[in-house]
TrEMBL record:
Protein name: D-isomer specific 2-hydroxyacid dehydrogenase NAD-binding domain-containing protein
Taxonomic source organism: Chaetomium thermophilum (strain DSM 1495 / CBS 144.50 / IMI 039719)
Signal sequence annotation: none
PROSITE patterns, per the entry: D_2_HYDROXYACID_DH_3 (PS00671)
Coiled-coil segments on the chain, per record: none
InterPro entries: D-isomer_2-hydroxyacid_DH, D-isomer_2_OHA_DH_cat_dom, D-isomer_DH_CS, D-isomer_DH_NAD-bd, NAD(P)-bd_dom_sf
Keyword Oxidoreductase: yes
Family of this protein: Belongs to the D-isomer specific 2-hydroxyacid dehydrogenase family.
Length: 429
């Protein structure tokens, strides 16, 4: 499993998008007079040449003030949509169409990815001048961050901006697994598919009667978090507080500081099987592994308590979905909720049936929809996109003035390259 280091470990409760500015300010490289923005503005008139930023994707929408400073300090080049298609993008890199640019800037998750996976074919064509790649989104399985680091390029994601939204969504999914929301919703909207199907009123009454016997309050149950970065800690803060009263357990490749554990009342488990054995509901909230191999496999699922619950707000590639469907059918898992899928936008057919079926034609008895399925929506709020855009710009500003970025993910692979743009760096510092 990849180290869940997509965002810095906070010293207090996880940072929400509402406090993103204060977190950025605390992480940004200090300037000589303590005013980052003023130093940027003062340097604009004197520097002979602006560093070039390659802006891939849609224009800025939400943060015009930051972009005014950003575009004043950097020469921003935005390739057209046809130029971002992989064959043309490769051609442009080979011919150095955009010069010796210093940064790659992708402020939106929905655009800017037309060239496909950032693998060796693309990365090897980048000019030596590139120092930072800052992108929207928390996940980075679409970019070879190890290779970027070895080439001297810091990759910064924007997971910090999405943490609040993803955690909120995870709370909904956790509650769904305890209260069987797909069953309750499906029964209320049931439409007969054959003349032999029962009437909607019968399905409604059956759910009203039988869902009660299968439902539980989350309070007092153990929530097992796989990954304890900003998203995991946000979930812990929400579900472990008096409102829900769950016991928090977690597994991570690196144990978090004692102060973080104490504040969130979280118990560390050094290996994944031991976490699964104590958890009533497991939430997967860690970045994808570098090789996209599943973490939740058939053998790993055997460690779960019978009737436990499973939620995935991380990456679909981390779960063997056929093994998960087997565990649901066997009753090892009583309910699941998945926001991400292994082959998006295609959703596993067995899981779809489990999500939608509220009447079993074979037995003639109602049965619950045991799975909640959504369309990779967990981080999708306006506030998240505002944060993506802002944080991506701030990451580039920080790296190009000598810092390591605010949310770097590949520093352990980073190999520094010779300093460029010395005049620019000196003027900012």
């Amino acid at each position: 499993m990849a180290k869940p280091n997509n965002t810095p470990v906070p010293s207090e409760l996880p940072v929400s998008p509402m406090t993103l500015q204060s977190h950025i300010a605390s992480r940004a490289s200090p300037s000589a007079n303590g005013s980052f923005e003023r130093n940027l503005a003062l340097s604009a008139a004197s520097k002979p040449k602006k560093p070039i930023v390659l802006h891939i994707g849609d224009p800025i929408k939400y943060n015009p003030g930051t972009y005014a400073t950003f575009s004043q300090e950097f020469e921003v080049i935005r390739p057209s949509t046809p130029e971002r298609e992989r064959p043309e993008f490769i051609r442009a890199l080979k011919e150095r169409r955009w010069g010796d640019f210093s940064a790659i800037f992708r402020p939106f998750w929905g655009t800017g990815g037309e060239m496909g996976k950032w693998d060796a074919e693309l990365i090897d064509l980048l000019p030596d001048s590139v120092k930072v790649f800052a992108s929207a989104g928390a996940g980075f399985d679409w970019a070879d961050t190890k290779l970027l680091g070895e080439k001297g390029i810091i990759y910064c994601n924007s997971g910090l901006a999405a943490a609040e939204a993803v955690a909120d969504f995870a709370v909904t999914m956790i509650i769904s697994t305890f209260r069987h929301l797909p069953w309750c919703m499906g029964a209320a909207t049931f439409i007969s598919s054959s003349p032999h199907s029962p009437a909607r009123e019968e399905v409604f009454r059956a759910c009203h009667t039988h869902a009660t016997a299968a439902s539980h309050n989350p309070r007092g149950h153990t929530l097992g978090l796989i990954g304890f970065g900003n998203i995991g800690q946000h979930i812990a803060a929400k579900m472990g507080n008096p409102a829900f009263g769950m016991h928090i357990a977690y597994h991570d490749l690196e144990r978090k500081p004692a102060a973080v554990e104490a504040q969130l009342r979280a118990v560390f488990y050094p290996d994944l099987p031991s976490l699964l054995r104590v958890s009533d509901c497991v939430v997967l909230c860690t970045p994808a592994s570098p090789d996209n191999t599943p973490l939740i496999t058939a053998s790993m699922l055997q460690h779960l308590r019978p009737g436990s619950r499973f939620v995935n707000v991380a990456r679909g590639s981390l779960v063997d979905e056929e093994a998960l469907a087997d565990a649901l059918e066997a009753g090892t898992i009583s309910a699941a909720a998945l926001d991400v899928h292994a082959d998006e936008p295609r959703v596993n057919n067995r899981l779809v049936r489990m999500a939608t079926q509220v009447y079993c034609h074979d037995t003639g008895h109602p049965r619950p929809g045991r799975v909640m399925l959504t369309c990779h929506n967990a981080g999708g709020t306006i506030e998240t996109h505002i944060g993506f855009e802002e944080l991506s710009m701030r990451n580039i500003m920080d790296v190009l003035r000598g810092g390591n970025g605010i949310t770097p993910v590949n520093l352990k692979h980073f190999k520094p390259k010779p300093v460029i743009c010395d005049d620019y760096k000196n003027e900012l510092s």
